[in-house]
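[09:14] KT: can someone run the structure on this one? pasting the chain below
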Amino acid sequence: MSGTIVESAGDMPAMAQTAPGLPGVLALGQVPRAAWERLAGHAVEANAFFAPGYSLPAYGCDNHMRPRAITAHAGASRQLIGLLPVVSAWSALRLPVPALIAHQPYSPLTVPLLSREHAETAAGALIDAAAAHGARLLVLPAMTLDGPAYQALTAAMAKRGLVATIQNRHQRAALDATQDAEAYLRGGLGSKRLKELRRLRHRLDEEGAVGFALHCETSAVAAALERFLVLEAMGWKGAGGTGLGQSAEDAAFVRSAAAQGMFEIAELTLNEQVIASGIVMRQGDRAFFFKIAYDEKLSRYSPGVQLTLELTRLFAADPTIALVDSTADAGHPMIDHVWRERLAVGVMLIPTHSNDPIAAAIVALMAARRGLRNRLKAVHHRIQTFKENRT
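[09:31] RB: done, structure tokens below
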């Protein structure tokens, strides 16, 4: 069993260097695509954001990140059994420390891809590979903390005398798609709230013909994505300049991922005009509700919630889907009231050596950095609120 780090040259001096021409040392885009696809489709815990069709376009939108992949292999055939896309701490956080970060643009989930048959062995090989190439810390910024991948990592660490630190632990909404949709919605929303949403839907029906569609074929997704980008730009994300289509690099990334079949797009329409749109991803028995946009002029009808109700019914009727990750922030004001399951998520910081003071210092530095960022965000929020109250 072996672990290798697949990298591009030119990383920070604190990281060990390996010439890119050596066997097993490749740029991220040179990881064998078929093997990567196979692992992503049969991982012990699904993560569509680390599939090649998403990872390669995502990293492609930032040429300065110098992405690499830590990989684990098994047997004489060197079967790919583990993979984790990473960048240096300098590229991700501008911290000059020997750490590797599982970071990429627009990735709300950083669970490594681990083979179902060799999950613990693969997890250990990834840690060992990071250590062999100079990293004192391996950081998973959005790791689920109660799934099989976490269990595999924990078991592998125990064998090596390693103890992870968890920061920013929180819960985010998910949908148990194995239940009857109407019973689920009634149990979660309550009859009164569900009745009110049905009343709003009837009022929307009175405005014209309401339709719902899920686009899966590549050309249909491409057209629906353009409508999504327009709709998103019309709302608060557009006003803040954070819409996916407002940066040329972000737009190129999302269009490329769509062209590689990573997205399905759900649309709620009124008289054939899109009033709510959601980007969905699938991997294994999981789906991921990646992005949502809606027509804010029609907010009195709750179009975003109406779209989510339709998706809930769609996923519950699909026998191939067991769980849907909302990918939303903790305490999301909409999705938390519709989907009542919770995924425990946090930043998992894994030292690559036992009782390493350097790793402990990096962990403390990252905690201080996060605390400072949170305080600055709070100050910014208070200033914005003050300005709005004065107008």
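[09:33] KT: thanks! The longest strand covers residues 165-176.
[09:34] RB: yep, looked fine to me
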